[in-house]
Design goal:
Distance between the termini: 42 Å
Order of helices and strands: HEEEEHEEHEEEEHEHHEEEEEHHEEHE
Oligomer: single chain
Number of strands: 19
Strand content: 25-35%
Radius of gyration: 21 Å
Shape: globular
Mean pLDDT: 85
């Protein structure tokens, strides 16, 4: 299937499907739904030399016509920011569907348990291989629906991702999509998510995603608008926006356990220059890593830590370094990396303490039980 045909099929299919869901379930079955129904905001269609990849991104509290974004990637592994290796956690077979699950390397699961203990899905698939998460078989139609991928320092939640080999014909792919949505429970349609009632859904950031309007937004404005979401996602009690310290981190988060996070936004935001004019700031992952390295060095000094304590009331010792990126940006293992879609999802995830004991089923792959 040519990429242009792939775009056409997906645009029509998912637009029709999600519009139909939004017009039916919230009105006719509102009392039967598990929570508030939220929708994706964008259709990202990626072309590689061998694969066509669909991903639904963004989190919106109401259905809006999906925006279409086309892009290219060198390989399917590059798109999923997957490590090189020969022993993946999962080999995706034809028409497999993984839903409401966490797929992780051992290092990824360990990191999740420490950083986001409430994020683990109802089903955990953990691999003991060489750091690779996924292996795609030619012609496969496997779907990742509401799946959290964790490999080393990289965490990514996908609303829905489907990768098919470019040799597959359009009519066969369309028939697969029909089968996929028709086999799902009526009250839990593919491409949607039910979340518990929360004040976060009433905030403006859930009316769109980070991709909308950021070219007119400064770092300070973004942090002010999204403060409650960041606090909820990182289990934090305080957000310090653009602290006036050497190098000026974008933010410092103080978590409920007393630890701290130094954060940098590798998003298409503006910054205010010394002359007072607003200019687009560097947004690559490499730029963010360089800035975070400087902040880490800053807090290595006892004198600087004391200054931060006096000025902002925070005792920053051995902080986490977090780089927030756009969903499809090339990431890095040098620092902890997370995209904003995943932050939105983590903010909506009930804390681990509220979950029923034993809800999570862990499957260890690659070793004897």
């Amino acid at each position: 299937m040519k990429p242009t045909e792939f775009v056409k099929v997906n645009s029509q299919f998912w637009g029709d499907h999600l519009k139909s869901v939004s017009e039916h379930l919230p009105t006719s079955h509102s009392r039967e739904l598990a929570g508030t129904l939220v929708y994706p905001r964008q259709l990202v269609l990626t072309e590689t030399p061998d694969w066509n990849i669909l991903e639904l991104t963004g989190v919106s509290r109401e259905y809006r016509s999906l925006e279409v974004r086309r892009q290219k990637a060198a390989s399917i592994d590059e798109y999923f920011a997957d490590a090189k290796g020969s022993r993946p956690v999962l080999i995706l077979h034809d028409e497999d569907v993984y839903q409401d699950a966490t797929i992780a390397t051992e290092a990824g699961r360990k990191a999740l348990g420490t950083r986001f203990p409430g994020a683990l899905g109802e089903r955990e698939l953990v691999g003991t291989g060489d750091g690779k998460l996924l292996q795609f078989a030619p012609g496969n139609y496997s779907a990742l629906h509401r799946v959290l991928l964790a490999s080393g320092e990289r965490v990514h939640w996908t609303f829905l991702a489907i990768a098919i080999h470019r040799s597959e014909p359009a009519d066969k792919y369309r028939a697969y999509l029909d089968s996929l949505v028709n086999s799902a429970p009526h009250l839990d349609p593919v491409g949607t998510l039910s979340v518990p009632p929360t004040e976060l859904l009433k905030s403006e950031p859930f009316g769109s995603t980070y991709l909308h309007g950021l070219h007119k937004t400064t770092v300070g404005e973004f942090l002010q608008q999204h403060e409650k979401i960041l606090l909820a996602a990182f289990d934090a009690t305080q957000l310090i926006r653009e602290p006036q310290l050497e190098g000026q981190p974008d933010f410092i988060l103080e978590r409920a356990d007393g630890s701290h996070i130094i954060g940098d936004l590798a998003l298409p935001l503006l910054e205010t220059a010394k002359d007072g004019k607003k200019r687009k700031r560097p947004t690559t992952a490499a730029d963010g890593v360089a800035r975070l390295t400087k902040y880490e060095q800053y807090f290595g000094s006892a004198e600087n830590r004391e200054f931060a304590k006096t000025k902002y009331g925070v005792e920053v010792t051995d902080p986490r370094k977090v780089l927030i990126v756009a969903g499809q940006e090339q990431t890095t293992d040098q620092v902890e990396t997370i995209d904003y879609d995943t932050i939105l999802r983590l903010a909506l995830t009930p804390k681990a303490a509220t979950k029923t004991s034993g809800i999570s089923s862990v499957t260890i792959l690659g070793q004897q039980s």
